[in-house]
Each structure stands twice: as C-alpha cells, then as structure tokens.
Amino acid sequence: MAGPLAFLSEAYTASGPDYDDRVTVPVLWDKKTHRIVSNADDDIMRVLNSEFDDFTDSDLDFYPEALRDEIDMVNDLVYPHINNGVYRAGFASTQTAYERAVYGLFDALDQLEERLSNQRYLIGNQQTEADWRLFTTLIRFDAVYHGHFKCNKRRIVDYPNLDSYLRDLYQHDGIAETVNFDHIKRHYYVTHDDINPTQIVPVGPDIDFDAPQGRDRFG
Known about the structure:
Blueprint: H1 8-15, E1 28-30, E2 35-38, H2 41-50, H3 68-83, H4 85-90, H5 95-115, H6 129-148, H7 160-170, H8 181-191
Antiparallel strand pairs: 1-2
C-alpha cells in the first residue's frame, strides 16, 4: 500500500485482505512492510519498552526483570476489575451483571488506595508499566466512567491516595499533552448513543490536575 492511510480500517485490510472483524486501537504499524505488527495494548507496550533499545539512548525500563512478578500480579488485578471493569459495568444489560462489575471495580480501587498509602507508585517508588496501564482508566474516570458508565459509588477525587497519585502521573513530563478531555468526553457521550441517546456532552467536571500532588514525599 503506497501513500498514507486515510482510515484505520485500511491498515487492517492491508494486513489481511479478508479481514472483516472489529477495527480497534491501539495499533503498531510497520511502515516498511505495510502490515500491522500488533493491535494488543499489552504487547505494544512491551515492544516499545525494549525492542528499540538499540536505536535510542534511553535507559527507561517499565518492565524490569526483578519486578516482573509483582507487576504481573498488579496487572492481574487492574485489567479485569478496573480497565475492563468500567466497560463491563457500562455495557451491562442486566442489573446483576452491572452490580457484579461495579462492586468488583470499587473493591479493586479500594485495594489500590490502600497500596498507595505508603508508596509513591503501584510497585514501590519506581514507575512501571502497571502505573501507565492504570492511568488511562483513572484519567477518564470522573469525566466519563463515573456518570456515563454508572460507576458512581465514588469518584477518584474521593480517594486521597489515588487522586494525588493520578495527578503525580499526569504531571510527569510529556503526559498532560496527551490528554484531551474534550475529545475523551465527546467520544464516549456521542458514540455510545445506546447509553446516551441524546448525545449531550456534560460540561464538567472541573478538576485541577496541575494542583500540587505531594507524592514526592515518598522519594
């Protein structure tokens, strides 16, 4: 395929002409072979973490070998109950399924709130992939998942440790510029017309993610 792609679906058909399944993000695209390398977020994260080390002078490692067992343990809590839990609650078609997802979600958030009471990040005082996996859900939580997906037992701002932890990550170099709340809210509230048939996008909430976070007291 020559030239730039106009639609993500073209990347999928270029990789497999007979592909007729869902078109999802993220995608890692090979510009030389014109094929999708991966569309799995966990796989892409680890590819970017280490596979290009020979082409950069960065010494960042978000999946260090010595911490992998603990990282995997935290991921096994975060992904099913939080990352995926908000979707299982939001798209639930029965009260039972909804409540099961919501109670599991907030039980996991309660565990992380306690975990963050005496350490800066999820794995001690070192950033790992576990933090950035969680970040993507936390940053959207109060603006979208709390209302749109009915995950409304509590907000992230109601958790002192999770709230300050989220601001700590948001204030890390290069992160704030990747977050666009107008885009985030319009995507969810407009495209899920089965959940929000009026497609009205709420104007709030007003949250100051640049407020002092105090997490650096942990080192």
